[in-house]
Amino acid sequence: MTISIDNLLVKKNIFNTKGNDDILNRKIIKGNTTNLFNLNFIKYTWAKTLYRVMLSNFWIPEKVDLSKDSLDFKRLSKDEVLAFERIISFLTFLDSIQTTNIPRISDYITAPEISVLLAIQDFQEVIHSQSYAYILESVIPADRRNQVYELWRDDKILLERNKYIAEIYQDFSNNPTLKNFSKVIIANYILESLYFYNGFMFFYNLANKNLMLGTSDEIRYINRDEATHVELFKNIIRELNLENDNLIKEKDVHELFSIAVEQEIQWTNHAIGNNILGMDKKNTEKYTKYLANKRIKDLGFKELYSNFNENPYSHLEKLADNKGEDIKSNFFEATVTNYSQSIAIEGWDEI
Amino acid sequence: MPYVFFKDTVNNINPNKHCGMIGNANLCTESFSNFKPSKILKKEIDENKNIITKTIQAGELHCCNLVSLNLSCIEEHELEKMTSLSVRILDNTIDISTPPVLEADKHNNEYRILGIGSMGLADYLVKNKLLYKNGLEEIEKLYESIAYYGIKESVNLAKERGVYPKYYGSDWSKGIIIGKNEDWFRSNNTYIPREYWIDLINDIKNFGIRNGGLFAIAPNTSTSLLMGCSASVLPVYSKFFIDKASNGNVPICPPFLSKETFWYYQENKNMNQNDVINAVSVIQKWTDQGISMELCLNLNNGIKAKDIYDLYLNAWKKGCKTVYYVRSIALRAEFPEKKEECVSCAN
After folding, report:
1. Are the Cβ atoms of B249 and A208 closer than 8 angstroms?
2. Domain spanning A40-329+336-350: CATH 1.20.5.170
3. How, if at all, do strands B322-323 and B51-57 pair?
4. Which residue from B minimizes the CA distance to A56?
5. Angle CA A333–A338–A342, to nearest 5
6. Which alpha helices (DSSP H) does chain A contain, by range?
7. What percent of chain B has pLDDT over 90?
8. Contacts (Cβ under 8 Å, ≥6 apart) of A202
9. Please, are residues B214 and B152 in contact by the beta-carbon 8 Å criterion?
10. What pLDDT is stored for residue B1 in this prediction?
């Protein structure tokens, strides 16, 4: 099969004196950008809001105290420990390859305001990987840590699952066709919006039992960042479709999501299964399909699973504090996770 | 942005300004009185005994002696009894407890400052089918009553046990009650009949008062959870939220939440914070020390720096003495076009 030149994406130049930054000419892909970043001169206005939100979400993993978690860890059941290790290992790996993948996508993005957001996302993925490592090293005994880090390829089911998403990333990197670009964008959206969440729920479920509260604080921070990444890719997909004659097709979204959902359920059944109080296989299926439906509908496409529109874990999502207003922290005693940096507020010069 | 303390307002109404000034409050910003650091005058070494002796000029250190009336379950006819009892409990506390710092012990004995506060005001309003906005009269009546009953009991204690040592020369001794003299009571309307207040002023002049300060409203964030009522005098944070403290996450619903009361429970996170400031300033009128006022800014409602500045300024203008803490609700990732209408604003 030959690939027509139209379907091949070309990496943007770093130094492009003939670039045209006019807003009318600006496009997410195949544009002609000089790469100049100017927040006052942007086409995609949502990017400015998102920029502020992402910056004001800044946090540092070590500011959460995990000393009590290492005591709690000894009180976990055998199955909870096993699940904890597998999920941490999985999340660490995903955020690690995500850190490598994001710049490869950004190479082809010709709207500076979006490249900038991808750079912040990339930075946040680093923080996430590091926070998983901080958790791992705070609670898991030294002799076990390396084994946990390596689970991503030693655990067969986990390897299989990571392979699927990683290969989509690798394919695009090797062969940057429009088709592969569309796939990598959908895969990113899936990773950010679906893949982490049964894992997150596991930690909130522990927190619901007043266990591993520091860990759940870390997860809440990460969750808050992921919400901005989901929003970013949702908007990228929407704009891509406007500019490129519906490049991201419902059919492809459905196809990729259905495989992802299957793997997510299989993996969660393996990692969590029926042996953790508060979670089971039935609810894993319900939650995963509910979440997939929600994410697909957010893109403006038809849902994939009928009769899966109820969230079995809404009580756990309350602990996720997605809206930033469900949790009221006693700031003398516990980490406040829903603050913003002062950059979130504008108009200092009006005072 | 925590712990803002309006030193001017605090000291203008300081009943003990004749013998010192108030430089700061406690951390929760509700409890304060004269403060002075100790000074080391001399250090002497007795080399034979290997002992160093310091001579220290005694400073003054305020000590918080706090109690709170649970307004969610006190009936109107019990208010006088409960307030009087609170005065006695705290006055006894000063006698039977010893602060670990000498300066505080001395201060306690010289000023005998109490901090009678309250919690569950939000529940009290709901019980009476009132909102913060239209409940200002009821709120003022309530706190004026608490002030009246409390001061009256402290005068009774003075008759029994004598006045506090620093009483002479204080505002109290000049017939000034929380910054208000007899002229003020003659020219302003009050809920407690004017004659009662004037009688009380005369009683103080005749018998003195046992306590140099009586009222301070603490935040009660954790205590109110144990008591099953809303915290302090503030609106509930939310109709359903998770309280996160060191021991874990506790789901919280206000005590009287029902279909009938649903709209009366205003959520602080959705309220115009000037409504909170107005309510607190009415309470402050009858509170001789401070109130732990916590404001809550939802950054998703387009809050600008000037709005925050205006809130602080308004709090100061309205006579609030401190702003304990400003909580914020972080910016959300989703964009306004998707934001759901909030239930409390629809009210």
Report:
1. yes
2. no
3. unpaired
4. B331
5. 110
6. 45-56, 67-73, 78-106, 112-139, 142-154, 156-174, 178-190, 197-208, 213-243, 250-271, 281-298, 314-320
7. 84
8. A83, A84, A87, A271, A272, A276, A279
9. no
10. 64
**CB contact at 8 A, B302 and B274:** no
ipTM score of the complex? Answer: 0.73
Tokens representing residue B61 in the block: 């250190």
| Distance between CA atoms of residues B85 and B91, nearest Å | 10
pLDDT for B142-151, tens place per residue? 999 999 999 9
Pick the CATH number of B1-347 from 3.20.70.20, 3.20.20.70, 3.40.50.720, 3.40.50.1000: 3.20.70.20
Selected catalytic residue, list A108, A132, A287, A313 = A132
> Do the Cβ atoms of A331 and B298 come within 8 Å?
no
Q: Distances in Å between the alpha carbon of A333 and those of A64, A218, A328, B212?
A: 12, 16, 12, 33
Q: In which band, very low, low, confident or very high, does the pLDDT at B327 lie, cut at 50, 70 and 90?
A: confident
Among A46, A50, A327, beta carbon nearest to B241: A327
Contact call for A324 and B334, based on CB within 8 A: no
Helix (H, G, I), strand (E, B) or coil at A340: coil
Residue matched to tokens 């991503």: A152
Q: Which residue of A has its CA nearest to B325?
A: A331
Q: Of the candidates A227, A330, A350, which has its C-beta nearest B306's C-beta?
A: A350
**How far is B301 from B153, CA to CA, in rounded Å?**
46
B59: pLDDT strictly greater than 50: yes
In this structure, what token pair is assigned to residue A323? 């809206």
On whether any CB of chain B is under 8 Å from the CB of A15, the answer is no
Question: DSSP states of B150-179 as a string?
Answer: HHHHHHHHHHHH---TT-TTSTGGGT-BTT
What's the gap between Cα A263 and its chain centre? 17
Give mean pLDDT, residues B277-301: 94
Indicate the residue type of A20: N
CB proximity A124 to B under 8 Å: no
Task: Indicate the domain borders of chain A.
Answer: 40-329+336-350
Residue of A nearest to B338 (CA): A298
> What is residue A180's three-state secondary structure?
helix
pLDDT of residue A8: 86
Confidence band (pLDDT; 50, 70, 90) for B341? very low
pLDDT per position as a tens digit, A242-300: 999 999 999 999 999 999 999 999 999 999 999 999 999 999 999 999 999 999 999 99
SS (H, E, C) B229-244: CCCCCCCECCCCEEEE
Q: Which residues of A touch B331 (CB under 8 A)?
A: 52-53, 56-57, 324, 340, 344
Among B243, B330, B332, beta carbon nearest to A339:
B330
Comparison of pLDDT for B213 and A323, the residue scoring more: B213
